[in-house]
């Protein structure tokens, strides 16, 4: 069975099908509004206590980065917009608190599920976790306790919430299989941190399997074998031993330089979303930050973050990384990432709409505040500024003009900043890749955003499960655009990086090295493996294969060629 591999490794063991108790919510008309609101307040108080316990437990047993999930849950339980929405529903519709929680939660969940950015879309699961916690408390239903597991098992579920993974007996769970989720869900992040093999996107797996079934999961290849033969078990036991030996080798990459077999120096950096994520970058030996997503500052607040608040968030990361590069992407929100206080218009096609640099150039009041904060923080480290969703030269020039205005304001106020701060753009629209020789004259660097570049090149909504098979980083047209962008950047004397998911794809890393990519930015957990691949790959050996690879007709052909001629 094919799946999405979300955490590398191989697990062989018995299945435990995990199903949450069903929460049946009935609509009831009520007379005593105050009583319902008191019930809500009591459930919220209990929920906050529970997530605080989960935070403490995760901090002690897993790590700070993973524990922050429960700080986010606590913030949701204290969020006035969420809580006041529930109370308003009770008062205005005179409905029971359970129904109000369900209705308001579903509105917010739908909002997050429609966000294009996979990293942000995964937050819908957080809200589901929080709302289920409230509903269980209100209904007096206890959740299944995964702490009491007595036998080693592969956990099979429709989905696993952060609370599920935090509370389970980690000595007994040897693998995860879920029907929902993807590489950026918290379950996947937790699995990678705990080094537990995991796969996702396996339709109806909870119906197909039952407790005590034998299963093999290969998180590296995204495969499941249900009730395997003795021969298959032996084959995968050998693969498991090989993987564990390989993993020990990867850990030895800490402190090493990222240099290819034939002496080409590469920079391997990491993607982050909040200042706290920098801990993981340091722990995993990242050489800096290649993408700092600033939209969290705006989405996690009820009001526009002030210049000082933004300055502190950028300064912390710059200081912690002690001179290593920190590329900060300016605000990338718009139609698909709604922020209530911005009053953004609803759009028929938000992926192609009023977002990112388009919004910022229209709302210069918002943009200028962020640019001032970024410039101020540049005095404390090696910050670079990157503009997203650029589609034409005028946008770059307008953005640079506003940046110059911000510089002049700071000079007049005698505030220090890096006068030579580097400016780059994300190459995520095919028109920019095709015209990259011209765009390269305007900036200091390119960062190829493959997530959107693939989506726009092959006309596939990557969030649509029905057509997700069409979305591939191995598509020859996508690879041609990447190669063209790198070559055009180098001709104009600028460096070229990549910050999309493809940068951490172990099959693509050799190809990208052969194409001349200078910087790879990925999840912190992928850094050491990427370094090992670079150190064991010769750029000169890959280069002669590129013409053949780019002449292949399909993504499947490209992947097969890589498997047979590069990885194999």
Detailed description of the structure:
It is globular and about 70 Å long. The protein is of the alpha/beta class and 568 residues long. The protein has an 8-stranded parallel β-barrel with strand order 8-9-10-11-12-13-14-15, surrounded by 5 helices. Strands 1-5-4-3-2-6-7 form a 7-stranded mixed β-sheet. Helix 16 links the parallel strand 11 and strand 12. Helix content is 49%, strand content 13%. It has 3 domains: 105 residues, 3-Layer(bba) Sandwich (Glucose Oxidase, domain 1); 107 residues, Orthogonal Bundle (Enzyme I, Chain A, domain 2), CATH 1.10.274; 301 residues, Alpha-Beta Barrel (TIM Barrel), CATH 3.20.20.60.
Distinct helical segment count: 25
Task: Give the assembly state of these chains.
Answer: single chain
CATH superfamily of the largest domain: Phosphoenolpyruvate-binding domains
Number of strands: 15
**Reported CATH architecture of the largest domain:** Alpha-Beta Barrel
Spatial ordering of strands, largest sheet: 8-9-10-11-12-13-14-15
The overall pLDDT, averaged over residues, is 89
The level-1 CATH class of the largest domain = Alpha Beta
Low-confidence stretches: none
Radius of gyration: 24 Å
User: What fold name stands as the CATH topology of the largest domain?
Assistant: TIM Barrel
Fraction of residues in H or I helices: 40-55%
Q: Structural class of the secondary elements?
A: alpha/beta
